[in-house]
Amino acid sequence: MQPYLRPDLDRLQAYHTPHFPEADKLDANELPHDLPEWLKNKLAFLLEQGVRTNRYPEGDPLALKAAIAEYCGVTSDMVCVGNGSDELIRSLITATCLGDRGTVASAEPTFSMYRILAETLAVPYVGVARTADYGVDADALEAAIQANGTRVLFLANPNSPTGNLLSDETSERLGSLPVLVVLDEAYYEFSRFSAVPLLWEWPNLVILRTFSKAFRLANFRVGYALANPEIAAVLEKVRLPYNLPGLSQLAAFAALEHRDVLLAAVPEILAERRRIERFLADFEQIELFPSDANFLFVRPRTADPEAVRVALAGRGSLVRSAAGGLRITVGTPEQNDRLIANVAALFTPEMR
Ligand SMILES: *Cc1c(COP(=O)(O)O)cnc(C)c1O
């Protein structure tokens, strides 16, 4: 109807997440805990004393970048911050492919934003199928990159929704690919595995991280990219001015300052993930995949995953159906107890 709007946007849908306030929210890989009250009070104080709401925020938040650089063991000129890592994904596509220069590639199933952001920019997206155990097929990836003029490759490590890390053999091959290689380490604080040391070996490497998961700041939308200074400088050129609100900058800075307290929850989440894994392993009808993150990926062997999702939601456990399976975020012990009871009510264990 509207002749001025791009027709290729007709088939896209606005990003939408279900609103289910009564259910246990185990569908977005967030940490189940809010910030501690004393830290929220500190942020409220900083908002009152340190933020003039009529003024634009700092466009280049140097103190935050320095704190991120210290946390990651890099220099400040290797850090870019974004309004969530989603903004940085878009900046990376803008900086590599925009204007018919090339395609975006990833290994499917994976995080949907790589595809969505490419499509909104009218950049072709190439999804290469993962192997049966969700590993990356490096030969197929390399062939697809050659055949499609790919300029940027996104790989989530660990992957979402499947939770697995890249194998060593695959990782070793990425450095020699003729593309910008973006490793998305959104779950780094859970996996404790990082490619940061490779930033000095591979000129084509970018690492993405976020404050949305282990640091409990999903509401504030703070992500960051780590790359060599030349790439970082280009990402700075294509970002929006004032992309990070002042309160978000303060929250991220405070989260790093108090990371000992905040990240103390990580081993608890991992222990809870193992508890859920032990429970699910008893079910013949559920295929469980190994995870290095704060969520689990399972595939019901006979039931339709979407039907299982709806049944679990009806019982108060909201999980995500994705890639022919279910992605279940680890919650609080009480939420996990309810999840376990709800799964037990839907499936009968073979043994016990
Ligand atoms: C959650 C997640 C992110 C985080 O996105 P933000 O925009 O920083 O909230 C990025 N990548 C992956 C793979 C994720 O699962």
Overview of the molecule:
The chain is α/β, with parallel strands linked by helices. Helices cover 38% and strands 18% of the residues. It contains 13 helices and 13 strands. The chain has helices at residues 37-50, 62-72, 84-96, 113-120, 138-148, 168-174, 188-191, 229-238, 246-257, 259-262, 265-280, 305-314, 333-346, and strands at residues 24-25, 79-83, 103-108, 125-129, 150-156, 180-184, 205-210, 222-227, 286-289, 295-300, 317-318, 320-322, 325-329. The strands form three sheets. The protein has a seven-stranded mixed sheet, sandwiched between helices. α7 (188-191) links the parallel β6 (180-184) and β7. The chain is globular. The chain starts with 23 loop residues before the first strand and ends in a 6-residue tail after the last helix. The mean pLDDT is 96. Pyridoxal-5'-phosphate (PLP) binds at residues 29, 84-86, 111, 156, 160, 184, 186, 210, 212-213, 218, 223. Residues 29, 84-86, 111, 156, 160, 184, 186, 210, 212-213, 218, 223 line the site of pyridoxal-5'-phosphate. This is Histidinol-phosphate aminotransferase. GO terms for molecular function: histidinol-phosphate transaminase activity. InterPro entries: Aminotransferase_I/II_large, HisP_aminotrans, HistidinolP_aminotransfase, PyrdxlP-dep_Trfase, PyrdxlP-dep_Trfase_major, PyrdxlP-dep_Trfase_small. It comes from Gloeobacter morelensis MG652769. The modification N6-(pyridoxal phosphate)lysine is found at residue 213.
